[in-house]
Amino acid sequence: LALIFVCLFANALAEKRKLKKGSKKSQKTKPSAIGPACGACLGKYCVSLPKQVFDYEEFIPASFSGADRESMVVAILPYNKPREASNVLLHLKTCGSQSCGKVFPQGTVTFGIDGESSDDANFPLPPGRYVLVLASSRHYIGSLRSEFLEFGVCKGINDVECGTVTNECPYLPSERDVPCTCKAWADLQCLRDNNWINLVNNNLPCPCSERDAHANPRLEIGFWDEVLETIEEFHPGANVCYRGEVNGYGQQCCYGGSTFECDDANPCQLLTDGLGAGTLDKAAGTPTNVLIHGDLDVKPFNMCLAQNQIDLYYKFRPISNSNIPKCSYYKGHPHRLCSNGQKNCISVEKTTFRPSETIPIAYKHEFGRPFKIVIVRKGDRP
């Protein structure tokens, strides 16, 4: 059974690494490469949106590709109505207006700009659930050229403090469908119940030291960090991470120190800043929960990190104990380099030394033979 869990996590980990490596490529692909939350294709015909839920009165930019005739349209219909011309709420020809002189195989049209659409009176769309589609023409809306793409319109996404009011939002996509951008993901988190954060922090706060975490029966060393040695990749600067669970939600406590091992002589303290620190998880990162944890926590983390918006991620998956003053502020070991997981490492305590100053270098290795630590000038070959 444990082997099955390891295989499941290895697949999820491979997918995460693939997303990291392919983030730049995916910007140049058709919408079908974005995923079901952002784009829908049928053969070469595709439509896509930058996010799943739009605020009331917000312009709706819809991208398309594969259009092969000048009369084609991008149309919006109610989700629960028949796909007929009489039910079209908004439509634009693929040239961006209602008169085209040539074919536009791909591009973006924007709903809501005055005078662009003959049915502007239907904008803004009231809160609700809608579909976007690429069709042969407005009058032949049933002649589909793409799959329908679902999206929603809500009131109160951008103009209220997150979580202070009950927003009018009849449509929320599945939480396991990760949107295209970190900002879109954060907008959706504002519309969801975030009381679980206080529940975890109040019932299972992180101990300030690794020694106390080790003694806590509700915390155990992270399975993935211990078995697959992922801590260096996901939490650089941490020596060890512990995980706990509260009603299916996860607490992750990561610890670091000035050396590579946590022991009585070198106690490790809770990391409360930076990528080395642990975070609260909407789905506990246990072996039996790996796929849901991957969708709700790992994929959004990867996306926000790749888009340089990690602070948005931390707003809804906060760093453990970062807002609790009882633990000292600690960033972990700043100048460490490891390979082969964490088996071969070297470290210095700072990056600048005086000409006559002694340079202490910490190391650990798994070699069964003598080895050398060499200092060379930057740019020279060792």
Topology (elements, then pairings):
Layout: H1 2-26, E1 39-42, E2 45-48, E3 53-55, E4 60-65, E5 73-78, E6 90-93, E7 106-111, E8 128-135, E9 149-154, H2 182-190, H3 196-203, H4 210-215, E10 220-221, H5 223-227, H6 231-234, E11 240-246, E12 249-256, E13 269-270, H7 290-306, H8 310-316, E14 336-339, E15 344-348, E16 361-364
Parallel strand pairs: 3-9
Antiparallel strand pairs: 1-2, 2-4, 4-7, 5-6, 5-8, 8-9, 10-11, 11-12, 12-13, 14-15, 15-16
Helix pairs in contact: 1-7, 2-8, 7-8
Explain this structure.
This protein has helices at 2-26, 182-190, 196-203, 210-215, 223-227, 231-234, 290-306, 310-316; strands spanning 39-42, 45-48, 53-55, 60-65, 73-78, 90-93, 106-111, 128-135, 149-154, 220-221, 240-246, 249-256, 269-270, 336-339, 344-348, 361-364. It is α+β, with helices and mostly antiparallel strands and 382 residues long. A hairpin with a 4-residue loop joins strand 14 (336-339) and strand 15 (344-348). The radius of gyration is 26 Å and the shape is elongated. Residues 1-10, 12-37 and 328-334 have low confidence and may be disordered.
